[in-house]
Amino acid sequence: MITRETILSLIEKAGNPSISIFLPTHEKGEEVQQDPIRFKNLLKQAEQELREYEVKQSKIDELLKEPKKLLDQPIFWQHADKGLAVFITEDSFEYFRVPLDFKEQVLVDNHFLITPLIPMITLDGSFTVLCLSQKEVRLLRCTRISVNTIYLEDAPVSLDEYLKYDVNEPHLQHHSGQGKGNAIFHGQGGSSDTDTREVQNYLKAIESEVTSIMRKRRDPLILAGVDEAMAEYRKVNHYSRLMDQSISGNPDPKSDVEIKDEAWEIIKSYFLEDMYNDISRYSDLIGSDKQTDNLSQIVEGAYYGKVDSLFVTIGEQSWGWFDKDKDTVHHSSKKQNGEHDLINAAAIKTLSQGGNVYALEKEDMPQTSTVAAIFRY
User: From which domain of life does this come (predicted)?
Assistant: First the structure.
């Protein structure tokens, strides 16, 4: 999982030279067999760029020794995600499998190429889903790409279990013989034999442990279940970060991954709230000296810690260098020795100094610019 902390760690580990390799990979099919071949070609490209960087062959061999070992590990390539990101210095070798479809790319510089990873931290965060069911209660801790079960130790995991223990456990606050009501789990196997009061107490027993767990984790919580059951749960809920939106319908036939994917469609706007607020703030500042889409101003501002929020277009690069003595940004039409990706450099400086960086498609960028920034002052 790539987080802001992951990228900050890469920024700190960068050496001279630093090698960044990005490769689109495949999870299944015949193309899986082509992935190590493409990676081998990228390693050859890295070797050529290191020579142009005037690195001695003995050091090149040492730098690429560990990544070359991956070429002889078939199992490694059979457990891929959409993309592979590799980062190499004299003292470190790290790789990340990520759900991003990278373009093939190699960069040798005195820092790592981090902008292809920015979409991961734009949508960084975990959330939890509570699946309410008569047959099985599931509490799932999720990220955009993963899902894991949180096991309930005290709460009942099914209505049958609750009723079984309820017979001998009066502290669970159920009293047999109370008036029958409509089945809250209608359409889920519920019947008139399961009265409303029984289900309400069942949900209270679940809520007690779930709320205790959630107050420690502080994740946003999404409910999944039939509407009647979720409505009853909300009546007894004491957790402040329960989301208004929910996943309606019987969750029993759905896998954990299917539940996670449906919940992600609900939660992603929650994680993007800061970005949307900053886009709105950028629009409000148009015409002032606290916003710009001028790359030279942004690079200079990032170097001096002025950039509060930076917006970059996914896949865009711009070559040049910053003359610190003259406070001048020089631009190039293509990469040349001694020049850097200015957009990447601005992103590194912004993140390192506590600013926010967002990666968007061109059509979603403020004023459809290639790059844009909000200044602190």
Answer: Bacteria
